[in-house]
Amino acid sequence: MKKHIKYLSILAISTLATACSSSQADNESKAEDQPFELSQRLKQELSLAPATLEPIQTQLQLTGKVMPYEDKQVKVSPLVDGVIEKIHANLGDFVNKGQTLAVVHSSEVADVENQTVSATSDLLSAQKNLQVQKDMYKAGLASEKDVTFAQNDVLKAQGSLKRAKEVSSIYSVKNAFYTLKAPISGYVIEKNNAISDKMSFHEGETGAFFTIADLSQIQVVANVYEADIAKVHVGSQVEVKLISYPDKVIKGVVNKMSNALDPETRTLQVRINMANPGFLMKPEMFAQVNVSYSSSDRSIAIPSSAVIFDQNKNFVVVYKDAKHLEVREIQIAKQNSNKTYVISGLKEGENVMNKNQLLVYNALVN
């Protein structure tokens, strides 16, 4: 009897264990059968990109450098010979329009001062003579012709004084000193190494004292080899990268192309005009310029940011709806920083995830 009871107890425990195991297996099977669905957060952050059929854009890599905008720089030279009294600006300084750059002592500007003084004296004499002629005309002692001649003398004297003052203003003359002023606001990007305080100079020999440039706009000048000229034209889209800011990509277009090759390097210069907020780009910085151009071939295109590289293969996550997503291997024809051109694995019009796709990829393949 005891043996029979013991057998029944073992049988009951065995049956219960089998039932629990079966229930757990059923739950796991149900969990496995349950389809993947995007979480609420991923739905809110969802970003999709359509696969479109486009001409394949290829990038041509050029070398170049940052230069001042050609229409916004000026060389500042003295207009007279003399001795430099004091230099007030140095390389790299920012100067405002009209700011003093240097003061020069010159005998030539002393002559300008004398001309102004002489013209002023002549005008006073002519005005006094005109008044005398008018008084004499009223008294019948002078003719109308005499008054007219006196009036003409005043006009001539006024003209001479005006010219003398204009010359004096150009030279900024005061006590035989000539002030060299900034014609525009900007940075001093060049300073003549030959000049110094108390140095005598000849205007035609010394050359420009300073070069001032407005660097709020700059140009990137790049060189195109002869074999690649047909791939570049005015309006071509470009991406500029600088050694100083390797993670920063600055977009622009080709604004100007030279019409003459450099005979030594066999290259053609192209210019890209760009805004320079914060003056981050400095003259003479080296630049890498990537020029985009279209080929005659067409292919399915998606953003490069949507591509997942894993185990030496390329994948995308194809989105149909929140419950229907598929990891798809793709074959790439060409790829640049913006777009990837696909040979196979995608059809035109299909949508691929362009944000958080790596999270979904890991959930689907693991």
What does this structure look like?
The protein is of the alpha+beta class and 366 residues long. It has 4 domains: 41-55 and 297-365, conserved putative lor/sdh protein from methanococcus maripaludis s2 fold (Beta Barrel), CATH 2.40.420; 61-69 and 215-295, Elongation Factor Tu (Ef-tu), domain 3 (Beta Barrel); 77-105 and 176-213, OB fold (Dihydrolipoamide Acetyltransferase, E2P) (Beta Barrel), CATH 2.40.50; 107-175, Helix Hairpins. The protein is 30% helix and 39% strand. The protein is built from 6 helices and 22 strands. It has helices spanning 2-33, 40-44, 107-138, 144-171, 203-206, 357-365, and strands spanning 48-50, 52-68, 73-76, 82-87, 94-95, 100-105, 173-174, 177-181, 186-191, 200-201, 210-213, 217-225, 237-242, 245-253, 256-257, 267-275, 286-303, 308-310, 313-321, 324-335, 339-344, 351-353. Strands 1, 2, 12, 13, 14, 15, 16, 17, 18, 19, 20, 21 and 22 form a 13-stranded antiparallel beta sheet that branches. Residues 73-197 form the CzcB-like barrel-sandwich hybrid domain.
What is this structure, in a nutshell?
The chain is α+β, with helices and mostly antiparallel strands and 366 residues long. It has 4 domains: 41-55 and 297-365, conserved putative lor/sdh protein from methanococcus maripaludis s2 fold (Beta Barrel); 61-69 and 215-295, Efflux pump adaptor protein, beta barrel domain (Elongation Factor Tu (Ef-tu), domain 3); 77-105 and 176-213, RNA polymerase II/Efflux pump adaptor protein, barrel-sandwich hybrid domain (OB fold (Dihydrolipoamide Acetyltransferase, E2P)), CATH 2.40.50; 107-175, Helix Hairpins (Orthogonal Bundle), CATH 1.10.287.
